[in-house]
Amino acid sequence: MTNYIHTIKESFVSLIKKYALAQLIIVFITGVIVYFGLLIFDVKHALAIASVAIFLDLIPFIGISALFTPWILYLFFTNHYTLTVQLSILFILLILIRNIIEPKLIGSSIGIHPLFLIMILFVFMKLFGFFGILIGPMVAVSIKALSQAGAFTSLKNYLFDG
User: Which runs of E-coded beta strand occur in 109-156?
Assistant: First the structure.
């Protein structure tokens, strides 16, 4: 029994580290895209703004929307339409890229199929709202850790063979 607990703990810690690394890679990619996008659009202080985007991207659910949404609205209402359109395109591009790479990168880093990860996130978001977005990945990691430790196989054997 202690062997299972030790194996589950090791698997869980390893998967959490892999999940955190995958998140950091995604945040870095977001920061690079924001930086180069702002450089292309000739926005002053592109590095500082990209740094803020990276910091905000670490906050689940809120992320880069907290930067781009008010900024785009301000530019629109102050008649800076060219930059409004440029930042809107950059924001949409970031959303699309993240929606493509995030499930794939996180799923492959912790060994869970991206569709399964998306389903878990959707179910937990519906059940628990904002906290479901935080809880969902931990549940996915826990399921994977239990699977790696052989807990499901042992449970099946106990229930059906014993």
Answer: none
CB of 121 within 8 A of CB of 137?
Answer: yes
> Which residues make Cβ contacts (< 8 Å) with residue 67, sequence separation at least 6?
49, 52, 53, 56
Q: What angle do CA 109, 111, 113 make, to 5 degrees?
A: 110
Which distant-in-sequence residues (6+ apart) come within 8 Å of 60 by Cβ?
133, 134
Full-model pTM: 0.78
Is 153:7 a contact under the CB 8 Å cutoff? no
CA dist list (Å): 62 to 10, 70, 92, 95, 133:
31, 12, 15, 12, 11
**For the chain, what is the domain count?**
1
Confidence class of residue 162 from pLDDT cuts 50, 70 and 90?
A: low
